[in-house]
Design brief:
alpha/beta, Pro_imino_pep, Proline iminopeptidase, hydrolase, 350 residues, AB_hydrolase_1, 15% strand
């Protein structure tokens, strides 16, 4: 359990489904076989995988991407959480997007397991990650006729920042399980979620945080038993999906700690994201936007509903059974809402 729990420390900041009518699902494809075909694609040899070069001030590195399906007007690039997690958090999308004819692209950000992992702290900042996403977009041939960007948790921060700079390249934006203000997230975690725990357990956790005793196995054990299974993924530990456990195993703690920090009740200390806040700029986002919140999330669902009204063209999706990984613990509501959003934007009915 001690080893198991130590792998789970980064999980907090990672980081549902009635199908839409089938006549909507494949309208841009002549057949389902065409959706599945790799014929005449430059990534046929690798089964959809591309290692994309990313230019930075400190050199050129490669990031891993994998395309699934073919749809000229519906292509969803998935931004994983963390920072420093992996695309594996989204493997459940395999169960929902293909039958809807939606193309989607798995992507490990620089520093994540399947991409290059340079040991250079100067690379781990939001501005550079935004430019990385833009280079990935260009390499994959995505544009405002087809490009949907879906980001969850840290990926939601990255998606918001990308939209604020490059929204002219987007067709649709999905902000999943992420507030627009870290200070307000900190307040929610410390004044709402923490006090919901058993007072003695919460006191013990806070004492270890104040002592910066984050390596104590007891810290991970308490969080997993009393916090993660309530607010990150609402399943007993032996029912956590293998893909999620694989993500935790592959996490890059250097990236995670530098940007998010050690604490699971907010971002504190010297973590670079601790003052991040774009709530006053949401009104600048005019691209069709879906904001996803969940009842048991680590993020305040009321704040995310507010976000959907701040953007110029927004919709709110509420997952009443979900937590931070609501693509797993409230799949019915999560995927119904996301799929409907993509179809509605594509048909001009959003």
């Amino acid at each position: 359990m001690k080893i198991f729990a130590s792998l789970l420390l980064p999980v907090f900041f990672l980081i549902s489904c009635q199908n839409t009518p089938k006549e909507d699902s494949v309208q841009a494809n002549s057949s389902f076989e065409e959706y599945l075909s790799f014929e005449n694609r430059d990534d046929q040899y690798t089964g959809g995988i591309k290692m994309i070069p990313i230019n930075t001030d400190n050199g050129t590195f490669k990031v891993w991407t994998k395309r699934v399906g073919n749809n000229p007007t519906k292509k969803v690039l998935l931004l994983h959480g963390g920072p420093g997690m992996t695309h594996e958090l989204y493997e459940c999308f395999d169960g929902y997007f293909p039958q809807e004819g939606i193309e989607y692209i798995y992507y490990d950000q620089l520093g994540s397991y399947y991409s290059d992992q340079p040991a250079d702290l100067s690379l781990w900042n939001t501005e550079r990650f935004v430019e990385e996403v833009e280079q990935v977009r260009k390499a994959l041939g995505l544009d405002n006729s087809n490009f949907y960007l879906l980001g969850q948790s840290w990926g939601g921060i990255l998606a918001m920042e990308y939209a604020l700079k490059y929204q002219d390249n987007l067709k649709g934006l999905v902000i999943s399980n992420m507030m627009s203000s870290i200070p307000e997230y900190n307040t929610y975690a410390q004044t709402v979620l923490g006090p919901q725990m058993d007072p003695e357990i919460y006191k013990e956790i806070k004492a270890m945080e104040e002592a910066e005793d984050f390596g104590n196995p007891r810290y991970g054990e308490l969080l997993f038993e009393h916090y993660y299974t309530e607010h990150v993924l609402r399943r007993p530990t032996d029912q956590w999906p293998e893909a999620v456990m694989r993500t935790l195993k592959h996490a890059n703690n250097q990236v995670y700690v530098h940007m998010q920090g050690y604490s699971e009740f907010g971002i504190t200390g010297d973590a670079t994201l601790k003052d991040w806040d774009v709530k006053e700029r949401l009104k600048e986002i005019r691209v069709p936007t879906l904001v996803i919140g969940a009842r048991y999330d680590t993020m305040d669902p009321d704040h995310m509903e507010w976000m959907s009204k701040e953007v110029q063209n927004g919709r709110y999706l509420y997952c009443p059974n979900g937590s931070h990984l609501s693509q797993y613990d409230d799949q019915k509501n999560y995927f119904d809402g996301v799929i409907r959003f993509v179809h509605d934007v594509d048909q001009g009915s959003f």
